[in-house]
């Protein structure tokens, strides 16, 4: 009986991994003056992390990153629903707050006893301005061409799927020329080293500052941190 349950759990984990893999973008956007990259390292217990790049028009790109509160197949299914909702609402509206409120209303109706943190961004390629709506997710980390951290405005933001009267953190800032921006989920700074110690946000920031001139090395370092 125990072996049967273990086999069933493994099958569910594989389904969850496939669900996560199937919806994520196949490649990163290409745009003169910008260098995009993305990385997700599946854990043994699959969670509900996701990201997406959605073209809004010729000048703007939507960048979304989210994290489901649960793990396993239920989280993967909840992730797939949230992913589809964000895409659908982006196609219907240009209002960031309205988009997140609509997604929140649908998730509340599911009564799934799960929630999702979401960072929903609109990048203007021409001006470098990033407008974002933050629903309980970690804010971006931004550094300039001199590896100095840029102060990002932050206010209260609540996750989706919990509250009817949702508080959304709406901000905007300009990505500096030659700068770098990192969007991430808590799986990055909660990753542990060989001694079992979590990396923490301070170490993430140190690595980002040290490797800011080498985007390729930064991606490799993030991969090693999560493995």
UniProtKB/TrEMBL annotation:
Full protein name: PPM-type phosphatase domain-containing protein
Keyword Hydrolase listed: yes
Keywords: Hydrolase
One function term, GO molecular function aspect: phosphatase activity
Residue intervals of the PPM-type phosphatase domain: 31-225
Pfam families recorded: SpoIIE
């Amino acid at each position: 009986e125990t072996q049967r349950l273990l086999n069933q759990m493994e099958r569910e984990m594989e389904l969850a991994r496939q669900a996560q893999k199937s919806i994520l973008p196949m490649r990163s956007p290409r745009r003169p003056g910008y260098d995009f990259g993305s990385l997700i390292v599946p854990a043994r217990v699959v969670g509900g992390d996701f990201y997406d790049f959605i073209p809004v028009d010729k000048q703007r790109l939507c960048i979304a990153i989210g994290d489901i509160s649960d793990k396993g197949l239920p989280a993967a299914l909840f992730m797939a629903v949230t992913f589809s909702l964000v895409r659908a609402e982006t196609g219907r509206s240009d209002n960031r707050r309205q988009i997140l409120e609509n997604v929140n209303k649908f998730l509340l109706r599911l009564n799934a006893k799960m929630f999702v943190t979401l960072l929903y961004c609109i990048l203007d390629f021409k001006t470098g301005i990033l407008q974002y709506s933050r629903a309980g997710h970690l804010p971006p980390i931004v550094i300039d061409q001199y590896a100095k951290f840029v102060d990002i405005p932050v206010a209260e933001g609540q996750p989706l799927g919990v509250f009817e009267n949702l508080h959304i953190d709406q901000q905007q800032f300009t990505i500096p020329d030659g700068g770098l921006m990192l969007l991430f989920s808590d799986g990055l700074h909660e990753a542990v080293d060989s001694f079992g110690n979590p990396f923490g946000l301070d170490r993430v920031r140190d690595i980002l500052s040290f490797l800011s001139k080498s985007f390729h090395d930064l991606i490799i370092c993030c991969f090693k941190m999560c493995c």
